[in-house]
Structure prediction request, 214 residues.
Amino acid sequence: MKKSARYLPLLFILLPACTLFLKKDDQICDLPCILESDTLRILTLNTSTSYFIYRDQPMGYHYDMIQEFCRHHGLIPEVIVAPGTASLMNMLQDEVGDVIAYHIPVTRERRDSVIYCGLQQINHQVLVQRAMQGDTLVDDVTGLIGKTVTVTRGSRYHQRLIYLNQELGGGIQIEVAESDSILPEDLIRMVSRGEIAYTVADDDLARLNQTYFR
Prediction:
């Protein structure tokens, strides 16, 4: 039977996000310094939207964007794959890379330490659920009461679920995936396989993965 995943828009969630940002520190090598070195060290994740290898060729939306930037400036791209989203920020702060090529939410705290650049977009968080024959779909957030939703610890999805649970007066069972190496795409795949019941992801990522699990 063909596996399928569907999602419920959580329309009250608006999440500004951007694709790339550089470390904001006067002591750190800036663009002129990078141009002189001829190499741009790119931090990213191995996902279907950011960076992946297909038939021995690197691909991905974020990879293509930063590759075009490198071509324009005559730079050699050096891709460094981080194990998880939290590691991206840590590796940038530790100067392992020069730029992150991945959707990173714009927050007040991060504005003090990084420079956001590239395209910005508004993302909505959505509930991802399996939609096979016999499955009962949640079509309203109140339907999550008594249900278990799995997200990664400390992620923006985890934070939003905590707030939503408070708004509903409790009842949502929040299951936390502890490992930083578990990505939203991994949880979407687990939903499609029936290993977990629900997760939360950005709408663009959910739509892309929906094409895989029809």
